[in-house]
Design brief:
Layout lengths: L1 H16 L12 E10 L2 E11 L4 E5 L6 H9 L6 E6 L2 E2 L10 E4 L11 H11 L4 H14 L15 H13 L5 E5 L7 H18 L2 E6 L2 H7 L2 E6 L2 E6 L1 H6 L4 H6 L4 E11 L2 E6 L2 E7 L10 E6 L5 E3 L10 E11 L3 E7 L5 E7 L14 E5 L6 E3 L2
Parallel strand pairs: 3-8, 3-9, 6-7, 7-8
Antiparallel strand pairs: 1-2, 1-4, 4-5, 9-10, 11-12, 11-14, 12-13, 14-20, 15-19, 16-17, 16-19, 17-18
């Protein structure tokens, strides 16, 4: 127990302090340098530049067809850039075949050999590298212990659960000790609860091994959970690269704000902008909207207020101060999710917004119900003003 506690504290300390991208002197392990990939007339990746550092858990996030998998395949060697360079540890990978690159790729389908046992699946890579038999046996035992499958070494893939097959695929990918592990939607085949559990196991495993992981996913929650940084892509273009908290709390564009989690997006006009505060006017409320944020905008410019449902407060009673940041409306719909409730509030202009409240007790003395008149308020620090 003491050993486990010490290991957890060590991992926590490393995670809190790990931020090589903030050090101008740090050298990236992986560099996508102005990379373009075209398939005929279609541009899948459009002038993308990203630096990824050693020991980083990095996520490429975006909808299907945004270019994230193509970017990963260029690093793996399955595709070549049309323009630009892909570098690993300072080496230009142009012309280097996949089997000579110190990277391994774990696919969503797992691609296990059905006729081989778990142990033989894991041993496949080391055998291809020509490792001695004794060393291979030691490596297989090490990987089985790492993914907690020692008792399943002689089983075939069809005799395993989905989560166990996922662990075998992970162990096989790690058995050759690559510099970088590429994970292409690795948890997509798992049920929600197992997927959430496995996300934390992946994080701990990555820290324990001290390896660089690059994951491709369209699941925002998955990227937010596992990654040190996230690159959000759209239509082949890199939109924002930042740690999960920055992506969520300070999105660079409306696209990022809308793609990551739930958000209310309200079109406004800038009334004033000075001293780290911006004042907005919107058709959804007669009261002005005041946000504590520095924005490069002028009076009369169009801007958008992005505000998360959990950042707002909802009440049946009028607030003491209705002079700013206050909406009035009617409950249109309610969603009960156990840990929280989602309220859809229709404003007088017809716009509907979402407000979420945690269900902190089992008994609610005066529940908010359908068609109730409500007041929605929020603090100046709750919203983000976006100009693009």
């Amino acid at each position: 127990m003491a050993t486990e506690k010490a290991r957890t504290q060590t991992i926590g300390a490393v995670r809190r302090s790990f931020a090589p991208w903030t050090d101008p002197a740090a050298t990236p392990l992986i560099r996508f340098d102005n990379v373009v990939k075209r398939f005929g007339e279609f541009t899948a990746v459009d002038h993308v530049s990203i630096d990824i550092y050693e020991r980083e858990f990095f996520a490429l996030l975006g909808p299907s067809g945004c270019g994230k998998t193509t970017l990963m395949r260029m690093l793996a060697g399955f595709e070549e850039p049309t323009e630009g360079r892909v570098l690993l540890a300072g080496q230009d990978l142009a012309g280097v075949p996949p089997y000579k690159r110190p990277v391994n790729m774990m696919f969503q389908s797992y691609a296990l050999f059905p006729h081989m046992s778990v142990a033989d699946n894991i041993a496949f890579g080391p055998k291809q590298l020509g490792m001695p038999k004794g060393e291979i046996a030691g490596r297989v035992a090490e990987m089985l212990k790492l993914v907690k499958l020692e008792k399943f070494a002689q089983r075939k893939p069809h005799q395993l659960s989905g989560g166990q097959r996922q662990r075998v695929a992970l162990a096989r990918s790690l058995a050759t000790r690559p510099k970088v592990l590429l994970l292409d939607e690795p948890l997509g085949a798992l049920d929600k609860k197992l997927r959430e559990e496995t996300q934390f196991e992946l994080m701990d495993l990555q820290m324990e091994l001290g390896m660089t992981f690059l994951i491709v996913t369209h699941d925002q929650e998955e990227a937010m959970t596992v990654a040190d940084r996230i690159a959000v892509m759209n239509n082949g273009v890199l939109v924002q690269v930042a740690p999960p908290s920055t992506i969520y709390e300070a999105p660079a564009t409306r696209y990022v704000a809308d793609f990551i989690g739930d958000v209310n997006m309200l079109e406004c006009k800038v009334e004033s902008c000075a001293n780290g505060d911006v004042r907005l006017a919107s058709s959804v409320t007669p009261a002005p909207i005041e946000i504590a944020q520095s924005v490069e905008a002028a009076a009369g410019d169009t801007a958008w207020l992005a505000i998360r449902p959990e950042k707002m407060r909802i009440s049946l009673d009028a607030p003491a101060d209705m002079s700013r940041n206050c909406f009035t409306g009617e409950i249109w719909d309610i969603g009960y999710l156990g840990d929280l409730s989602i309220y859809h509030v229709e404003l007088p202009c017809g716009t509907r917004i979402k407000v979420s409240l945690p269900n902190q007790s089992r008994v609610v003395e005066r529940p908010i119900s359908w068609e109730d008149k409500v007041f929605v308020t929020f603090a100046p620090s709750a919203g983000v003003v976006l100009t693009r």
